[in-house]
Design a protein that fits this description.
about 130 residues; alpha+beta; five-stranded mixed sheet; about 35% strand; disordered N terminus
Length: about 130
Amino acid sequence: MLKLITTLAAASIAQVAFAQGAPRLLVEEPRLLRTLLVAAVDSPTGEAHGQMSGDIAKMMSDRFRTTGPILIDITTERRYAQPGCSRLKIRFAQDGVVMPGASAPQNKTVDIGLNYCRDGLPPKSLS
């Protein structure tokens, strides 16, 4: 029960922070991405927004020689019949990325599609 309350509180914070133009929810570890996934599944708008921080963000920024933040935007593409399950689009974006062999920095995005339920498992059915 405490885990559920914590997850709901984090999801609400993420939604309010974005709606008010406040900083995005910081995601320091890969496991904290789950908070954003659940926030998107639970959100009436189907969205959640965050920013990667910590060692992984630093490693990626160093690799691509940029100081731009790594932004995470999750949107719901479809809600499934199974309660708490959705098809999500996860977008990672970073500005000023210098790719190997490139002469100038570029703005880059990576999109990932994911069938996801609040319990962390995929839906039993895609209908």
